[in-house]
Amino acid sequence: MRITYSQVEPEFRDPVEKECERRAEKLRRWLKRYEPDLIQLHVSLEKIPRRPAYSLTVNLALPMGTLHATGSAPETRASVKAAFAELESQLKKHQEKLRKDYVWKRKRSRGALKPGSVLSTD
User: What's the mean pLDDT in 91-102?
Assistant: First the structure.
């Protein structure tokens, strides 16, 4: 997986890179099937004007498509966490779609009996 950073100010570069690397490790577990050279992660951070908040945009380019996620928060680490959480949920949906999970119906558990309810044999 190649990770590129753009528009990250020097004062925020180290914390953003450390947090993104940590979150990218979690994504690598989901992306084992793809060649590492074909996966690109692009991260850009910008300060929201007139507010004490930061917006982090993450683009994940896969061979089968591109996923985009954005996270906004008052701190840079929190914005990284929000963006990667959104990206992870999108990745799960994308892989379910590729596996065609919507075609196969899963068996539902019947659940446990409630106390006080008795099965009748009549």
Answer: 86
